[in-house]
Every structure is written in C-alpha cells, then in structure tokens.
Amino acid sequence: MRKLISSLAAVTVAASLALTVPATQAFAAAPTATRSGTGAPGSNAATKTLVLYDNTGPYSWLGEDYGTMATNLVSHFGSWTAHPVGAYKAGEMAAYSAVVYVGSTYDEPLPTAFLDDTLAGTKPVVWMYNNIWQLTARSADFVAKYGYTWKGYDTSAVSTIEYNGTKMTRDVRNAGGIMDYVISDPAKAVAVGTAVGADGTTFPWGIKSGNLTYLGEIPLSYITSNDRYLAFSDLLYSVLAPQTAARHRALVRIEDVGPDADPAELRAVADYLSSKNVPFTVAVYSRYRDPKGVNNNGKAEDYTLRQRPLVVSALKYMQSKGGTLLQHGYTHQLDALNNPYDGVSANDFEFFMAHVDANDAVIYDGPVKNDSALNVTARVLASRADWMLAGLKQPTIFEFPHYAASALDYKTINSLYSTRYERGLYFPGVLSGGTVDNSTARMVGQFFPYTVRDVYGTTVVPENIGNIEPEPFNQHPAVLPADLIANAKTNLAVRDGVASFFYHPYLGTDYLKQTVEGIQGLGYTFVSAAAMS
Fold it and tell me: Which top-rank group of organisms is this from (predicted)?
C-alpha cells in the first residue's frame, strides 16, 4: 500500500500554516506593482475586473496572497488587473466591469479617490472585511443610501455559513471574527449568506446593497472542499456574470499511473467508466524508481514505460475507452531522498521538498536544491522522450506530483504546457511583480470550483472535492465515497461549478462506482478535461 499525500494538504492559507521556513529562493519577475492577465478559456472578453489588495504593515505579504487568490478566481470570468489599493487613481474603476477589494490590513490607508468612486455607485464593488469604516465615514448619508451600517466584529465561534439554502463549513480556528451589522432598511440591505453561531444565533455573513457587496470576512483562509469559500466563488457570478445559467459538470482523474501499474486494474477502471459513458483523465509518470529497494528486498529498481509493454498497452486501451493521458511529473520522486517518505515513485514529491514531523504531519520545506528552469525542463523532456519511445502521443496537460512546486517551476511549466489539471501553490511576489518569496510560511494553496487562468498564466482545470482514502494517514482522516458525494452536493451552490475528484486504480472499482454514480445522482454530468480548457 503506497503512502499518499492528501489533496487537501495544499488547501490552506499562509496564516494557518505551521511550517518550517527554509532559506528563500527568489524568482525574478517584472518590477511593477500593477499586473494584468487574460481570462480563462471560454470567459467573456468584455468582462474586466480590477482587484485591489492591501500591502502595508507587517502582514503586507498576506494582502498579496489574498489578492492572488481573488485574482485567480476572477480570471474565470474575464481579464483582470491587480495592484495595491494605495495605488488607486481617481476614475480608474470606470474601465472595469467590477472591482474586488480585499481588506486584509486593519486601517490600511485608502485613497479618497477609491472611497469616492465606490460611493458614486457606477460600478459593482465587492469589499471584504477591513476598512469599511473608512467608506462609511467618507459618506454623509451612508445609512440612508445603503440601509445599514457596520456594528463591529463578532468573534464568537462560527462553524457554519448558510448560502442560498446550502450549509457550508467554516473552520472555528479562524478567530478574526465576522463583521456584524445594524440594518435600518431591509428593502435596501439584503443579507448575503448567514453566519450561524455555536449557540444557534445568526447574523448576516455579508450585505448586498446597491452597487456594494460587503463580506464581513475574507473567505480565503482555512478553505476546504465544502467551505464558505464556495459562496464567494459563486457570488462572483452575481457580480461578473449574473445571467449565467446553472450547470453542473463533473470530472474524474485516474491518479499515479506509472510503469509499475497493474494493467488489469487499469483496464477494469477503463471498462467501468466507459460503461457509464464517463470520459476521464489518466495522470502518468513515465519512469519508476525505487533507488533503495524499499519494495524489492533492498535491490534498487529503475525502469520506464517502454520496458513495461503491458502497461503501455493498458494505457492505449484506456485511451480507446475515453481516457486522456496527462504528464504527472517524470519520476514522481526525487533522487534517493526520503521526500518525505522513502524515495519510491508515486510516494514522494518531485519538485518540492517535504518531511514528516514527530506528530506524523507532512511539512512543506520549500524548493528543491538547485531549483531552476533547466532542471524542470530537463525532467519534462526526459519524460516526453519516455512517452515517445513507448509509442504514446505527447501529453498536452501537466500535473505536479502532490500539487507542489516553486513559483519558478510553475512559470517554467507555463512555457511548456498551456494547461495544468490540479490545485496549486502561490507565493508573494508573483502578483506584485517583485522578488518571489518561496518560504512556506507565506505561501498559499488554492483549489478552484471552475476553470481559471492563474497568475502564472496557465489554464488550470479544477480538482476540488478530493480523493478516496480508505485509511487515515498523516493526521488526515479516512475519506470514503460518501464524503466526496457530500462535497459534490455542497458544490452545487456554485451555479456553474464542477465536482472534480481523483482516484487510485489499485483501490479497485467498487469505491469508484459508488463515487461516480453518487455524483451523477446529484445531477452532475461527467465531461473531459478538454471540455474545461
């Protein structure tokens, strides 16, 4: 039984990580505080979003992290421009469809031009968390115009957010509080979601009034597959694409398939999915390595796809049954290192360093030694050669092993592949165009409920509801089909969102059947990765 890293390991925000900080490695980006990007495939060319974030004080890096996450999401709808709120110029928002402001720093100095343009009401503004008091103080008639005012942060334990009839989780470790309100005109001020306290008391999670949608917290930390992050993801439709019709698509990816795979297991998975008319993707690493002989009585093993013709035949069979192959790294491990387990392919990280601590938790350590574009490119090209020699068509989609890499690695892959199918890690400096900080204490992980074009410039096909893990490991609980189906049900709240999971073929087909048919029973239609990109 292989040791595995849960897909949820990368879904957190720097403020919630308790990770060791390695020596940082810089990735040089253009030295400008304003960045722009194009929308994801299928987005509206006429939709343009301005993302503003805080960048002062000791947690300025966190403002950029949140700005990055918001920017990734709005790319689903169209092009974007992002910069610190302090750089806002009078009339700037007129050029955009909407504005998203992430207020992460208490009393961040906000330009009066931004306050005045927001109050003018000509463009939709989504405002998160801090500094709403600066807006109300700038207006002589805020309460009369908007029908409410802020009251103060409620720091009681709130573990549930109800949004459009769906209950979503909220981690109670998030102790920053949620803004409470005094509503004077319910006809103007409409609640956006409901925060439910431990004692059953409720108050609005956010308020929509006129052009202003205010959220009482930043729903970009402690995120999980059924978290209130999904409410924010859907709320962006209301602002940027309000005419979007409900549509619910699903995806499945068969994970960690290498030269050591069991051909019979691969064929069984393909037969089942084909019988249900379910297209699927297969994540393939092309070279198997066990340099210390962990699985071979101490004798090292090292072989490629070409040396396992039955596996290659099974992969071609999977293609004939509706499967698409993607490149899942090269060896899915690194040299003869325990990174973090035993150096065996599919167990370990390939492009990032990690270890298991005394509490049996996987700890991210940072970029690999001698991290470089040359190293990444060499591994990609070596794998492509393996594919060619095995008689397989070159892949067009990439997935980092265990969803982990440095900013430099992501940028390098963007020059080699237009599409990734995964979750991702993001670092301060990428969005702002400065020197990238690869320290794990300041990185964030993010998944997506729909396709985006992230700040690295790559189209990202989402995986967002996890994977089956019959046994608990590394402080992660067991995850069974019922859990993934429950996650998919919560994701129905995203009006044009997906339920995307991955599955290991050595688990057989029973769990796969339960998961696929349970998700279909919720009204989802399975599609290929190509349909999302």
Answer: Bacteria
